[in-house]
Amino acid sequence: MTESAQRDTARNAARKPARRPPGRRPGPTETREAILASARELFADKGYDGASLRAIARGAGVDPALVHHFFGNKEGVFIAAMQFPVDPGELLPKIFGTRREDLGETMVRIFLSVWEMPERRAPILAMLRSAMTNERAAVMMREFVSSALFARAAELHGIPLLRIQAAAGQMIGVMILRYVLEVEPIASSTPDEIVELLAPTIQRHLS
Amino acid sequence: MTESAQRDTARNAARKPARRPPGRRPGPTETREAILASARELFADKGYDGASLRAIARGAGVDPALVHHFFGNKEGVFIAAMQFPVDPGELLPKIFGTRREDLGETMVRIFLSVWEMPERRAPILAMLRSAMTNERAAVMMREFVSSALFARAAELHGIPLLRIQAAAGQMIGVMILRYVLEVEPIASSTPDEIVELLAPTIQRHLS
DNA sequence: ACTAGAACTCATCATGTGTTGAATTTATGT
DNA sequence: ACATAAATTCAACACATGATGAGTTCTAGT
Question: CA A61 → C1' C27, Å?
């Protein structure tokens, strides 16, 4: 696939209006992806309500009406930008192939591997930030998290849901302190320090 | 002109516009408090950016300009509504008067005692929700949490900051799952169940 | 009793929002 | 080569937002 569409398309938006003439652009269509990239970045940064369609369009170097043309309305953009914040099918095998006594460390490392990479963290942050202030987004997240994550994780090792949610709460809370609020010293700790800090707790919850 | 006589009869008191005549109202001033109450509720519900000055004014049965008159601008309202989300001076003695071996349970119970009462939970939720999408609010929360909570708690029992933040993360994460996202079954668990679930973890972190 | 100032509303401004319809240019199927 | 469809911009709507300045009514200090 063509990598000509870089992921930092949203970065070069600080320029002038850059009035393009109307009408279809020559060459294959790449704007749809650019819009989605810009949307993901802005939703991750400001949440659903804070990210405006116009800012998303600006980030993609595109007219706001084009966003509307592709996705119908703002919620359409959000849904398109959010499809699988993280692919469970990719992570669950790792968990399944782990000895019970190593579950804690494995889980923490998986979590960190996602959160440490900005482009993987973005959709999750977008979801979380949006769910905090927007009821519809909260419903989406609740359903995704419940059915796609908790339920499967529970059936996997036969661990009660409450325990799993306690473990998830531990991870989510620390991620918020570390990546959103950025309080020290936890924001500057190394991944290994986080693992050392949390693995025993997660292990406890999942036993 | 002709309808002005019948306009402000006592008939339309239950209506929405509720047009009050301009000028100061008789009696002692109670509007300032009403505005703050409305502000706290709305900030807790929608976060800083989601709560509009007009909605706050409407909630207090007051003209938007009055909010401006009292607090200067929106940030002024927020700051006035937020002073001490929770009073540390009130809670720390409880913590201090607890045996080290009971610290875990005590902490969880204190957290729950705050979060279970809607009017005590409101300012914290407002802070949290706002900090998730608004940078200035995030700074406020980071500073409050760092200096007023973590630092004091650390010096109290000589526990490393990282440990305290791990414990705080556990509590914050579970509170989000329980009160914001409202995922089951943790949203419907009794306080005692939450204590049983989390106390050992908090105890571990703080040892 | 008088007056300075506080409380309070109104009308309005400039800006930003999501959304829509029409116009223009290019790509695609025949 | 032609017609249809897709991609793209422009102009505009209707509405919400935070902010101001001016005017009206009350309270409080003298």
Answer: 21
